[in-house]
Amino acid sequence: MSNKLTKLNKPFSKEVLGTAKKVVDKYEIILTFSAGEWYGKVLEMPMVFGDGKTPDKCVKNTKEALTATIAHLLERGDVVPAPTCEGKRNKQVNVRLTEEEKAILGAAASSQGFKGLGDFLRAKAMIPKYT
Question: Is residue 105's pLDDT more than 80?
Answer without folding.
Answer: yes
